[in-house]
Amino acid sequence: MAHCGNSNVTIRQTPIQAFYAGQSIFITGGTGFLVKILIEKLLRSCPNVSKMCLMVCSKKNKSAATRLDEIFESPLFGRVKEEMPNFREKIVPVVGELYKVDLGFTKDDRDLLAHKVRNLIVKIQQKYFSYK
């Protein structure tokens, strides 16, 4: 529960805010449309999330770090930037590939996920195109 300035207004946490407070979350599919919206919503609505570990792969000659930078430059994150200028401190990029052994994670990333993360949000999509 928090108090708003000098007023008598009391702001209560929602059950979702209480659940994620102090927690670290691992999210896959972070460059996809729906997951970007989820990330923005969690950052904005659950400011007490400890860390968000985002699995991102390199793609089309862009590194995972570059892809994350592009995501956060999107107008979608404008409000988050205004309300939480240091939100990027909560973001931990985890480079991974679905088709690799151990998802291509480094030992440090595996240790981080095993010991710090208790919440997973997984979105996996494969696209197959057949041209005739």
TrEMBL record:
GO terms for molecular function: alcohol-forming long-chain fatty acyl-CoA reductase activity; alcohol-forming very long-chain fatty acyl-CoA reductase activity. Residues 27-118 form the Thioester reductase (TE) domain. One of its GO terms (biological process) is long-chain fatty-acyl-CoA metabolic process. GO terms for cellular component: peroxisome. InterPro entries: FAR (IPR026055), FAR_NAD-bd (IPR013120). Keywords: Lipid biosynthesis, Lipid metabolism, NADP, Oxidoreductase. The keyword Lipid metabolism applies. It catalyses: a long-chain fatty acyl-CoA + 2 NADPH + 2 H(+) = a long-chain primary fatty alcohol + 2 NADP(+) + CoA. It is an enzyme of class 1 (oxidoreductase). It comes from the Eukaryota. The keyword Transmembrane does not apply. Its EC number is 1.2.1.84. Belongs to the fatty acyl-CoA reductase family. Catalyzes the reduction of fatty acyl-CoA to fatty alcohols. This is Fatty acyl-CoA reductase. The gene is LOC106747262.
